[in-house]
Structure formats: C-alpha cells, structure tokens
C-alpha cells in the first residue's frame, strides 16, 4: 500500500475543513433567512444535506465516495463532537435528529450566534 505524502494529507484536510465551513455557512444562512421571515415558511423547511463521511454513515444516509448522502426519508445529521445536542441521538460518528421537526444544530465555536441557544458543543436554532 502506498502511503500518502504530507502535502496530499494536508490538501485533503484543508479541503475537508473548507467543505465543512461552507456547509455550515449555508445552513446558518438558510436558518437566519428563515428566522428573519425573509423566506416563505415552505421554503424554510430544513432539508438534510450530504455530509463528509466519517466512518459509517448515519441512519437514513448512504455512502457515495467520501460522502454520506441523505435518502428520501433522512433526518438532519451533524458530525458528533462529544455528546449530541438536545433532540439528537448518536448514530455512529454523527448526531441524528430525533424527528423531521428537530431544530437545526451547528457545531459551536465560542458563543452561539443570535437566534441560537447552546446545547453542549452545539448551537440549536431557536426557530
């Protein structure tokens, strides 16, 4: 087996971080638009998004290359960092929403943004 060199590992790690940051910014922007009532309620229904694969995919998701892709009945999922936030349950290396009406969870870095409350290592939308 060929061992990846340091620059390849660094590139993959940088790409992974960039993709996660973009995904979180997209989810946060959608949530903030909905909270500000700038979008109709039907457009604000949060839809599960593809996730970078970390081990096995969460329930309702299937593997596609380096990603976990949501199936037709998948619920929201976020990468697990310690305990899952309120309303979410552990599913492998992810936290999976308990229902399709669960609040959006984003990883917490510092304090939570406006419209969110802290739940462990996460921020949950107040809706």
Structural features, described:
The chain is of the alpha+beta class and about 130 residues long. It has one domain. About 25% of the residues lie in helices and about 25% in strands. It contains one helix and nine strands, in the order αβββββββββ. Strands 1-3-2 form a three-stranded antiparallel beta sheet. A three-stranded antiparallel beta sheet has the order 4-6-5, with no helix packed on it. Strands 7-9-8 form a three-stranded antiparallel beta sheet, covered by helices on one side. Strand 8 (about 115-120) and strand 9 form a beta hairpin. The longest helix is centred in the first third of the chain and has 30 residues, at about 5-35. It is globular. The termini are far apart. Mean pLDDT is about 80; it is low at about 35-45.
Fraction of residues in helix: 10-25%
Domain module tally: 1
| Cα-atom radius of gyration | 15 Å
Instruction: Show unreliable segments.
Output: 37-43
Structural class of the secondary elements? alpha+beta
> Major sheet, described briefly?
3 strands, antiparallel
Shape: globular
- Output mean pLDDT: 81
Distance between the termini: 49 Å
Along the chain, the helix and strand elements come as: HEEEEEEEEE
Q: How many β-strand stretches? A: 9
Please count the helical segments: 1
Question: Proportion of β residues?
Answer: 25-35%
Strand order across the largest sheet: 1-3-2
């Amino acid at each position: 087996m060929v061992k990846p060199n340091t620059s390849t590992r660094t590139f993959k790690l940088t790409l992974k971080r960039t993709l996660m940051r973009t995904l979180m910014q997209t989810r946060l922007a959608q949530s903030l638009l909905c909270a500000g009532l700038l979008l109709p309620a039907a457009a604000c229904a949060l839809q599960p998004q593809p996730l970078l694969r970390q081990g096995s995919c969460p329930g309702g998701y299937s593997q596609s290359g380096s990603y976990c892709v949501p199936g037709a009945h998948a619920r929201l999922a976020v990468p697990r960092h310690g305990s899952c936030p309120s309303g979410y349950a552990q599913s492998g290396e992810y936290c999976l929403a308990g229902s399709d009406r669960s609040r959006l969870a984003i990883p917490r870095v510092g304090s939570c943004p406006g419209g969110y409350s802290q739940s462990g290592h996460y921020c949950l939308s107040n809706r």
